[in-house]
Design a protein that fits this description.
Layout (H helix, E strand, L loop, with lengths): L1 E7 L2 E6 L11 E10 L1 H7 L10 E2 L4 E8 L11 E4 L2 E2 L19 E2 L12 E4 L2 H4 E3 L6 H4 L5 H11 L7 E5 L3 H10 L6 E5 L3 H9 L5 E3 L6 H8 L5 E6 L4 H10 E9 L11 H4 L5 E4 L7 H9 L9 E6 L3 H10 L6 E5 L3
Parallel strand pairs: 11-12, 11-14, 12-13, 14-15, 15-16, 17-18
Antiparallel strand pairs: 1-2, 1-4, 3-5, 3-9, 3-18, 5-6, 6-10, 7-8
Length: 346
């Protein structure tokens, strides 16, 4: 089969590799119909996650058709169309039993990282009963494509913010994950959602889609002061860091009010500094972590009922055979690229 394979930093290629096979009774084999290129894939491509081994098939956000199931799979059958979580959950280990699925001792985030991923014709899905979700007949792949990763991650960031009705929420980083955080933050009824980014086109896009109410560009305004101006001098009740870089990390901490919450969902490659000599007295709550992806059924229901629509994030759709070009489009933001989707070759 065709698969996009990591051979080392800046060295990835579309190769012919063996088809995946059932390894355990709880496995399923899925024919990938639609997948994406994610920000984390970009980190891997550039060597930012050195633990990824050469020879690994990349990718972790996808939908597909079940073509084979192990003897221990009970919820799915051949021919089912499914959205798949990027988080593999055994449901038996210490962490799964406590609902911390992202720390599953037998799974966690492994697609395209510890095991072969979905930028391929086929993929093996471990613990299929707890990691796959039927796509309703009324929805297409593109409707639910992001529930397995970025939409769940955005929801996780908003949930960790403990948003209250009437709050001011500022999202630092207006990439796909940040926009998903904005869209899902709406579910808690904040008074205003503020997008923060140096890319004016992203700010305008987030506002146009109704995901943000205001956009702030740190190169043009003092973001911390602007957030205070929105809130009678206090600062944002909740800030969400969705980029994984020093400026957005510092901005999220500087922008939150005393007693507020900073929710960090960005992927970082470098250490960050917390200025505890200033922060200890602020009573700020700082939450972070890898998405648990435990609200996928609810997200699919919200999409089905028209309460969430993240399809506008899809700016480019190309066949898997052009995946290398897709990475260039994504990294270089060609033609205002936001999310590049890969479709199975005919």
């Amino acid at each position: 089969m065709k698969a996009f394979v990591y051979h080392g930093p800046k060295n990835m290629s579309l190769d012919q590799v063996p088809n995946p096979v059932i390894q355990r009774p709880t496995d399923a084999i899925v024919r990938v119909t639609t997948s994406t290129i994610c920000g984390t894939d970009k980190h891997i491509r550039n060597g930012g996650l050195p633990e990824v081994e050469a020879g690994r098939v990349i990718g972790h956000e996808f939908c597909g058709e079940v073509v084979e199931i192990g003897a221990g799979v009970n919820k799915f059958k051949k021919g089912d169309n499914v959205a798949v979580s990027c988080i593999t959950q055994c449901m038996e280990c210490y962490y799964c039993k406590r609902g911390i699925y992202s720390r599953c001792e037998n799974g966690s985030w492994i697609f395209g990282y510890k095991i072969d991923g979905c930028q391929a014709d086929y993929v093996r899905v471990p613990y299929a009963d707890s990691g796959m979700y039927l796509i309703p007949d009324s929805l297409a792949d593109e409707d639910v494509l992001f529930v397995g990763d970025i939409l769940s991650t955005g929801y996780f960031g908003a949930e960790n913010g403990s948003i209250q009705p009437g709050d001011t929420v500022a999202v630092f980083g207006s990439g796909p994950v940040g926009m998903c955080a904005m869209a899902t933050a709406r579910l808690w009824g904040p008074a205003r959602i503020v997008a923060v980014d140096i890319d004016e086109s992203r700010l305008e896009f987030a506002i146009k889609q109704g995901w943000a109410d205001y956009g702030l560009n740190p190169q043009k305004v003092d973001v911390t002061q602007a957030l205070k101006d929105f809130t009678s001098g206090r600062g944002a009740d909740v800030t969400i860091e969705a980029n994984g870089f020093e400026p957005t990390f510092k901005g999220a901490i500087a922008g939150v009010r005393p007693g507020g919450t900073v929710s960090v969902i960005g992927v970082f490659e470098k250490p960050q500094i917390l200025e505890m000599q200033n922060l200890w007295i602020q009573n700020i709550t700082l939450k972070m972590g890898l998405v648990k992806a435990n609200h996928i059924p609810e997200l699919i229901d919200l999409i089905k009922e028209g309460k969430l629509n993240m399809k506008p994030l899809i700016t480019h759709t190309i066949p898997l055979s052009q995946v290398a070009e897709g990475y260039d489009i994504f990294e270089q933001r060609r033609d205002n690229a936001i999310k590049v989707v890969l479709k199975a070759d005919a």
